[in-house]
Amino acid sequence: MHRVLLSVLLSLVLVAAGSSVALALQSGGVEIGDLETGSVIGQPFKTLDVDLEFYSMKVGEKKAWYPPTAILNLTREGTGARAGRPILIKVTNTLDTEHGFDLSADTAFAGPTSLHVQLVLKPGETKYIGIPISDLTYVTASNTLRYKCHLHAAHLGGQLLVLR
Predict the structure, then answer these.
(1) pLDDT at residue 106, as a whole number
(2) How do residues 90-130 score in pLDDT, each as one tens digit?
(3) In Å, what is the CA distance from 163 to each residue of 22, 74, 115, 126, 133?
(4) Averaged confidence pLDDT in the chain
């Protein structure tokens, strides 16, 4: 009888621990906006430092997102001592046509709650993406996010490596 009671209690503890992890993965939510009116988890974009900048540009005869590889250092030596301050990404379309920006985990490693951002930028437009640090910490098993133009498959994208 004691063994059955102990195993039921242990099972309940494991189920409760698993459900709390799922809630942590969905804690904040990505916000998209402009510098003056945008905010993420209650913090206005204009009070945050820009961590990453991406630009659409023409390279040779191809349209691409620049830089082709970006690194976001969240280790203690990098920007890890940020005390929960969210990540702010600046995305600018320097081209004379609409351009899409899609940031997501590699589909082979993406979980059901992984980060996925999609937006369309008009010519010359700049948008800001605010990501809570908790959402970025658990985005993917490979620590790599991919960005591309979701409107045009032939445009060149890149990858964002998150160092933790």
Answers:
(1) 65
(2) 999 999 999 999 998 766 656 666 788 999 999 999 999 99
(3) 22, 6, 16, 26, 13
(4) 80
Beta partners for 101? 119
DSSP-derived letter for residue 57 is E
pTM score, whole prediction: 0.78
Select from 3.40.50.620, 3.30.2350.10, 2.60.40.1220, 2.60.40.420 the CATH code of 29-163: 2.60.40.420
For residues 41 and 135, what is the distance between their CA atoms, to the nearest angstrom? 11
- With 50 as the cut, is the pLDDT of residue 20 above it? no
Q: Phi first, then psi: what are they for 68, rounded to 5°?
A: -70, -25
- The kind and range of the H/E element at 71 are strand 69-73
As given in the structure block, the two tokens for residue 68 are 């082709």
**Any idea where the domains of the chain sit in the sequence?**
29-163
Decide if pLDDT at 21 tops 70: no
pLDDT on residue 13: 46
State the Cα–Cα distance between residues 83 and 81, nearest whole angstrom. Answer: 6
57 neighbors 93 (Cβ within 8 angstroms): no
Distance CA 101, CA 92 (A): 10
Q: Could you give the CA distance from residue 38 to residue 116 in angstroms, rounded to a whole number?
A: 18
